[in-house]
Amino acid sequence: GAGVSQSPSNKVTEKGKDVELRCDPISGHTALYWYRQSLGQGLEFLIYFQGNSAPDKSGLPSDRFSAERTGGSVSTLTIQRTQQEDSAVYLCASSLDFTANTEAFFGQGTRLTVV
Amino acid sequence: ILNVEQSPQSLHVQEGDSTNFTCSFPSSNFYALHWYRWETAKSPEALFVMTLNGDEKKKGRISATLNTKEGYSYLYIKGSQPEDSATYLCAFDSTGKLIFGQGTTLQVKP
Asked: pLDDT tens for residues A55-89?
């Protein structure tokens, strides 16, 4: 596709349910990032996939959060047993590679609301 | 913990005013410094990616400078227009991992 695609664009879920957020990066981009923006906050780093290396999971806020990237392309962010504080906009971005000088391209985000 | 600070947090200017914001970042393990513009209801879009100390980049009325030794970058907007209203984010790039500041929200009044 022409850009980074995220689905769904909006998700309302009940507290305690699991959710899966999907990100389709730009074809050929080897680096993929997940961020979230909670109300009134900046972009919080969650996880970073870089080529075939082990992902940098240092930003995941708890063990309820996990992400995978299959075949070096599509990525899924899973939140188990959702809590109200998980409500945020979840943004995915990809870049051509993980060397310097490469800008990141962002998707439109998934707005998650936990009720 | 990597600390990327932006100031001011928000800014209101009149159309035609020139303005600037600051991004400060760690001076060690530096790979690049990115600037993004994030308009309401849109995705963040890259303005500049800067890697060299002393680098200056320009795109139309917007320009940026970089000082990697002291760990800061300035973004300048000359002759602000209402369409410049957005949140401006800087991101510190360390081995490819992008850590963003909180952003500076600019409102340009006609």
From this structure: 999 999 999 999 999 887 999 999 999 999 999 99
Straight-line distance from the first to the last Cα atom of chain B, in angstroms, rounded to the nearest whole number: 40
Element (DSSP H or E) covering residue B106 = strand B104-109
In chain B, what residues touch A99 (CB-CB under 8 Å)?
96
Residues of chain A in contact with residue B103, where contact means CB-CB under 8 angstroms, are 42-43
- B13 contact A CB<8A: no
Region for A61 from its dihedrals, namely left if φ exceeds 0, alpha if ψ lies in -120 to 50, beta otherwise: alpha
Could you tell me if B55 lies within 8 Å of chain A, comparing CB atoms?
Answer: no
Q: What percent of chain A has pLDDT over 70?
A: 97
Strands B104-109 and B10-14: parallel
pLDDT of residue A51: 85
Q: Does B102 touch chain A (CB under 8 A)?
A: yes
Per the listing, tokens 């020139």 go with B18
Top-confidence residue, B65 or A42: B65
Pairing status of strand B10-14 against strand B5-7: unpaired
Q: How, if at all, do strands A19-24 and A44-50 pair?
A: unpaired
